[in-house]
Write a structure and sequence with these properties.
Elements: H1 3-24, E1 30-33, E2 41-47, E3 55-60, E4 70-75, E5 80-87, H2 93-103
Antiparallel strand pairs: 1-2, 2-3, 3-4, 4-5
Length: about 110
């Protein structure tokens, strides 16, 4: 497999796992695809302001060149970014995202 094939396989894996983790969250969220960047699904945890403001999001970067596939959490479109130690297959991913959403008072967790 070349890098492109790895990247495509990782996107499929990230999309599948993101759907699974989102279903485990204790509050409603939306899934969005990052069409200008990674092309993978991420969890949209709501916007703090108007419709033009960036949302809080959580996901996994599928790029194989960036190392382990670890969960991340972005506050307000990346004003603050938290990288977890949980890899894509870690069971506590939903609990970790819930913890971050509550810690940063994400709209979905209110």
């Amino acid at each position: 497999m070349d890098t492109t094939d790895h990247y495509k396989a990782n996107i499929a894996l990230v999309d599948e796992r993101t759907r699974q983790v989102a279903a485990l969250l204790p509050f409603p969220v939306e899934l969005d695809a990052d069409m200008g960047g990674t092309w993978a699904l991420h969890i949209d945890l709501g916007r703090r302001g108007g419709t033009d403001d960036p949302p809080d999001t959580a996901g996994v970067d599928p790029d194989p060149d960036n190392g382990n596939l670890e969960w991340w959490f972005d506050v307000d479109g990346g004003c603050e970014n938290v990288i977890s130690e949980h890899t894509i297959h870690s069971d506590p991913a939903a609990a970790w995202i819930t913890e971050q959403a509550r810690r940063f008072n994400s709209p979905a967790a209110r």
